[in-house]
Amino acid sequence: MRILVVGASGLVGQHIVERLRQRGHGATAVARTRRAGVDHALDATTASVADLRALVAGHDGVVFAAGVDDREIPRKPAYPAFHKGNVEPVARLLTAAREEGLTRAVVLGSYYTHFHREHPEWRLTALHPYIRSRVEQARAAREAAGTIPVAVLELPFVFGRAGDRLPNWSPPLEKWARSRSPLVAPPGGSAATTAGRVAEVAVEVLELASGADIPVADENLTWQEMFTRIAAATGNPRQVRPLPPFVVRVGLRLVGVAHALAGREPGLDTAHLSHLLLRELFIGEGTPGAVEPALRETFSR
């Protein structure tokens, strides 16, 4: 196959390009800026359908590995910014893919869409603009694709490294783990996976032309387990003490007040974020130690 990978310079995008080539497929790497390994520089948030048709022509499939993550704190209201970064480019890309006769597609999404399906009573799309954009992303992708099967990989915390690329959320955690500040963790936790594993799944579903929603999770970690292992990986192992839930709730509300005073709105509403952070957002049984090599690769120097 020939596969176009949009967002190919990112952590997961680089792994997908490498995995495609290992499997004998052709991979065309597209990213916002030109750098080593990038075949075409293109900003997916501004590219037209015509621009994208010129790129996807002659390919069998496409991967969207770009988008805006939940760390963004745009001006209020937040949803238009997340719609522009996550929904509109995917809709245009899959429209171009349909018009050029491609036969398969993969979109890298968020595991919050998995929990949205499993727990509609949590009202995640009503409360959190970022999660709403991810749900709309999947819907818009399939609507634009027509009969092309679109697999959506629902990703939790992703550990790993690709050259100088690390997970976007890892630098502040590494700085904290290496500091002399106390390490504390609230109840709850998250599923986790690795960039290499995401790439394996992405290539498998491209080969199968699958159109499924696929949560990708290899290990379930409590926050205490995660922070303890991160500290050990940095070479500064120490005890992680419990943090009472009420401290998390108060802290998040104060952060929310600061955002409001600045006229900004986060993608995950701080007034309701504790309902997620204090839960065990686990997927399946998981395999203890499955992400350990990638975790150490992320945080060791």
Question: H/E series, N to C?
Answer: EHEEHEHEHHHEEHEEHEEHEHHEH
How far the N terminus sits from the C terminus, by CA atoms, comes to: 37 Å
Oligomer: single chain
Question: What is the gyration radius calculated from CA atoms?
Answer: 19 Å
Task: Name the CATH homologous superfamily of the largest domain.
Answer: NAD(P)-binding Rossmann-like Domain
InterPro entries: NAD(P)-bd_dom, NAD(P)-bd_dom_sf, NAD(P)-dependent_oxidoreduct
GO molecular function: aldehyde dehydrogenase (NAD+) activity
Domain NAD(P)-binding: 7-143
Protein name: Nucleoside-diphosphate-sugar epimerase
Question: What do you see in this structure?
Answer:
It is a single chain. The chain has 301 residues and is of the alpha/beta class. It has two domains: 189 residues, Rossmann fold (3-Layer(aba) Sandwich); 78 residues, no CATH class. It is 45% helix and 18% strand. It contains twelve helices and 13 strands. The radius of gyration is 19 Å and the shape is globular.
Secondary structure blueprint with pairings:
Elements: E1 2-6, H1 11-22, E2 26-31, E3 40-41, H2 49-56, E4 61-64, H3 79-99, E5 104-110, H4 112-118, H5 124-127, H6 129-145, E6 150-155, E7 157-159, H7 170-178, E8 183-185, E9 189-194, H8 195-208, E10 213-215, E11 219-222, H9 223-233, E12 240-242, H10 245-261, H11 270-277, E13 280-281, H12 292-299
Parallel strand pairs: 1-2, 1-4, 2-3, 4-5, 5-6, 6-10, 7-9, 8-12, 9-13
Antiparallel strand pairs: 9-11
Helix pairs in contact: 1-8, 2-3, 3-6, 9-12, 10-11
